[in-house]
Each structure stands twice: as C-alpha cells, then as structure tokens.
Design goal:
Cofactor: heme
CATH superfamily: Cytochrome P450
Strand order of the largest sheet: 1-2-7-4
Organism: Psylliodes chrysocephalus
Shape: globular
Strand content: 5-15%
CATH class: Mainly Alpha
CATH topology: Cytochrome p450
Main location: endoplasmic reticulum
GO cellular component, one term: endoplasmic reticulum membrane
Number of strands: 9
Number of domains: 1
CATH architecture: Orthogonal Bundle
Largest sheet: 4 strands, mixed
Protein name: Cytochrome P450
Length: 504
C-alpha cells in the first residue's frame, strides 16, 4: 500500500513538473516578438492569436486581414503574431512583401509546408519542395504551362464544357434552381481528371464519381481534415517525419498514387500518346539523360496531384463567386454576355482558345473576383536563413514563418477605393496602372508565382462563358445573401449552397 502511494506521488510530481516546465516554456515563447521589439496583437495563453479560428468565428484569412487593417491604421509596417506558441511574422508594407516574395527570395524560397515523402509521396511536388530541388522541378515544368501547351489541352476542356451545357439545359427546361458551387466543382474536376490524369470521370453526370469523392476527402473541411492539418502548423516537421505523420488519409494517397501509376504503366506498355499534362510529364521523364534529375513515376504522381489540388477547388470557387456577383448585378451580367457573344460571332459562334483570350471584360470580371475573393487569402513563406528586414531594426530568424495577408491587401482602400464594391473596371488597361505592384496577389508573386495561372484563367473563363452566353441568372431565395464564408476551409468558399435561377 505504501509503495503504491509512493509511486502515485512520484508520478503526480513528475507530471506536475513537466506541466509547469511546458507552461513556462510556452509563456516564454509568447514573448518572442516583444523581446524583439515588434508590436502585434496580444496572444492568449494556450492558442496564441488563433482563438477566433478555433472557436469557429473567423477564417485564418479573416484573422490576418483584421490584423492588417488594425495595425496599418496605427502606422505599422509589420507585426508579430502567434499560432499556439509558434511565432508568425506578418508583412503589412508592400515593400516588405516584395522583399519576401521577390527581391530577397533567396531568404524565403520555401513555402514552409509539410513535406513527408516517405509517408506520403504525393507531398513531394513543386509546391512543397524548395532549394535546388525546387529549381530543378520548376525548370522542367515551366514549359508545360506555356500558352502553346495549354492550347493543346483546350479540346479536352471543351468536351467538359459541352457536358456542363447539357446539365444547364436540363435545369433550365425543368425550371429548377441550380447550385453553381456544386456544378462548378464537378466541371473543374472533370477538366483536371481529363487534362492531368488522362481519365474521363463524368462527374457532371455522375456526382458520385471516384474523383469527386476523393476530391471532397481532400478539400471538404471536416473536423478530421482540420485536425490532420493542424500538427504541421505547431509541431516541428522533423518530429512529424520521424513518426511518418501524413496529412492526407492513406486511402486518398493510395487512390491518386495508384491511379497515376497504373495509367503510366498502361501508356508505356501500349505506346499510347494523348495530348494532356500526363503525357507532357512522361516526355520529360523519358527525355532526361541525367538519372539524378530524372522524374520518377512517383514524382509524376505528385505533380498530377498538385495539378488536381490547384485546379479543382480554387477555379470552382472563382467561377462560383464571379457568378454570384453577376447574379446580383444584372447590368454587369448583360454587359459581360454582350461581350462574350460579340467575340464569339467572330469565331462562327464557337468557343475557341483565341476567342477566350479576346474577352477582355470577362477577364476583368475574373480579376476583380480574385481580388474580392482570393482563393488563398494569405501566403506563407518560411525564412530559410537569417534576414534583416529592410529599413527596420529587426532580424527574422531562420525557420520563422512569414505571412502576406492577401485578403487585407485586397481590401485596402488605399489601393482599391470602396473595396467592398465589385468593380471590374479597376482592372481596365488605364485603371490598373494605379494599382501598385504586389497589391494583387491571388497567384502569389516572384519566382514562386503559381505555374498554373494561365491554365486556371482559361478554365475559369470557359466555365463562365458556357453559363453566361446562353442564360440569364439571378440568386435563388435559398442562397445566403450577403455571402458568408466557410470558416473551416483554407480555400475561400461560401457557406452553404449557391443557388441560381436560370432563364434562357
């Protein structure tokens, strides 16, 4: 009995000691920016400055945006904040943002995202790798995203647009409301599965397609997905790699990996060529003489998965938000339709790559949508070597996360007067000259600007043209107005469905 009591006492003392030690370290960590003389919002004891996120009140993008607005008004060029006990440096001044993203890129060439190639080969893509490995892959992939290469994919994209048109016709004839968020997602999934993986998934006609199901497992902001994404934001990555931690579920990894590898095997065994992204990557793999730089089958799978990640939810959200804005502004909708039909008449009323490139007003609509609803409302960069902030007595230490609050910048009235108003003319040839560099960042900027930017714009244009040219649309009474955002997702998307009433 005495032994049991003594053991219990020892365990209690040990646990208490480590708890006190942890709290002492945590409290000391929350004084990191104060010791460096950098201002910022006061952190809470446990969650740092992430309390509003964890309570489900605000998105991370909204939190950073609020910090931007508050501290810019106080005259600050930069601030420090915390996610739990981890320090985050937040740039407010555009010159500092430019330094991080472009001028001093060599100090910030990593996204700081979690890379665990052994546990999850799909993470070893161009978005996650950095340094020489990133430069090598970037050099290989850049030719795959030239206008000429994208044009070769256009016929595959047109087939998906034809399927979307058929679905729209059904809703119009039946006089039923249409959820643009749902169908924009199906449309972009069909485009990505066809152009990247070489597969016809028909998600538009079959909402239970495998690609749709696994796409939802990646992007749907369930409690499980949120929890799996949290550890890499607060725990050093080396510890997570040591236990083979993976953000993605095993079944998701297996699906995308096996889908790509089986497709590669089939094409190589049967000498099959197809004008798609997978074929471009296979050519890169087979034409590389340096074995150390040769793309592997797993490497191809990782890039195809990234293509899926970048081209699915982001483009679907942009199509949805652009449609939402046009639905509540009938004059702007009519003007957009007028331009679309005027351009298409020059091309025998057929949608072509060249026709889409001529639609300047539609492009301005998309640019303004990306300003008001940036898919990624912030950018992360990891400091890869100690860096002195220009014009400031502050050194950012290696390993520190830096943040560019895109949403805050995009709603700054200094750069965009009356920022809540949807005004595509901000991006007219004359007006865009007044927008400072690095004040419009939906695709990032600098050497790590999104490679798939051109593809995403064409994909978005095609979806909007397919809808706008043939139908007038307005918000259905069941659509939340004004728009509210899904708190749990990293990609900006609306809360609930986005129903439209269609009329020919």
């Amino acid at each position: 009995m005495l032994f049991t009591c003594s053991l219990t006492f020892i365990i209690l003392i040990t646990v208490t000691f480590w708890l006190i030690a942890f709290l002492t370290w945590h409290i000391w960590s929350l004084g990191y920016w104060k010791r460096k003389g950098l201002h910022g919002p006061r952190p809470t004891l446990i969650f740092g400055n992430a309390t509003e996120l964890l309570k489900g009140r605000k998105t991370l993008g909204q939190i950073f945006s609020n910090f931007y607005k508050e501290y810019k008004a106080k005259g600050h060029r930069h601030i420090g904040a915390y996610f739990f006990g981890s320090p985050y440096y937040i740039a407010i001044d555009l010159e500092i943002a430019k330094a991080i993203l472009q001028t001093d890129f060599q100090h910030f060439h990593s996204h700081g995202t979690y890379l665990a190639e052994r546990a999850d080969p799909l993470t070893a893509n161009i978005f996650n790798v950095h340094g020489d490995r990133w430069r090598d892959i970037r050099g290989k992939l850049s030719p795959a995203f030239t206008p000429g290469k994208i044009k070769t994919l256009f016929n595959l994209m047109l087939q998906c647009a034809g399927n979307l048109r058929e679905e729209l016709e059904i809703f119009s004839n039946d006089n039923r409301p249409f959820d643009i968020r749902d169908y924009a997602g199906r449309f972009t999934i069909d485009i990505i599965s066809s152009t990247a993986f070489g597969l016809e998934t028909s998600s538009l006609k079959n909402p239970k397609s495998k690609f749709r199901q696994y796409g939802d497992k990646v992007f749907k902001a369930t409690v499980s997905v949120v929890l799996r994404n949290t550890p890499p934001m607060v725990i050093p990555h080396r510890y997570l790699r040591a236990i083979n931690y993976s953000i993605l579920r095993t079944d998701v990894i297996d699906f995308f990996l096996n889908t790509t590898l089986s497709n590669i095997k089939y094409r190589e065994q049967n000498n099959i060529k197809r004008k798609d992204f997978l074929n471009i990557l296979l050519d890169l793999k087979n034409n590389e003489s340096d074995l150390n730089k040769k793309l592997t089958a797993n490497g191809i799978a990782a890039e195809c998965f990234l293509f899926f990640m970048a081209g699915y939810e982001t483009s679907a959200a942009t199509i949805s938000f652009a449609t939402y804005e046009l639905a509540i502004n009938s004059e702007l909708q009519d003007k957009t339709r007028e331009e679309i039909n005027k351009v298409l008449r020059k091309y025998n009323n057929e949608i072509t790559y060249e026709a889409l490139m001529e639609m300047e007003h539609l492009e301005r609509v998309i640019y303004e949508t990306l300003r008001k609803y940036p898919p990624l409302p912030f950018l992360f960069r990891e400091c890869t070597e100690n860096y002195k902030v220009p014009g400031e007595d502050l050194q950012i230490e290696k390993g520190t996360f830096t943040t560019i609050p895109i949403l805050g910048i995009h709603y700054d009235p200094e750069y965009y007067p009356d920022p809540e108003r949807f005004d595509p003319e901000r991006f007219s040839e004359e007006n865009r000259r007044s927008i400072p560099p690095f004040a419009w960042l939906p695709f990032g900027e600098g050497p790590r600007i999104c490679l798939g930017m051109r593809f995403g714009l064409i994909e978005t244009k095609l979806g909007l043209v397919t809808l706008i040219r043939n139908y007038k649309f307005s918000l259905n009474k069941n659509t939340i107005y004004p728009v509210e955002f899904d708190i749990k997702g990293l990609i900006a998307k609306s809360k609930g469905e986005m129903w439209l009433d269609l009329q020919k």
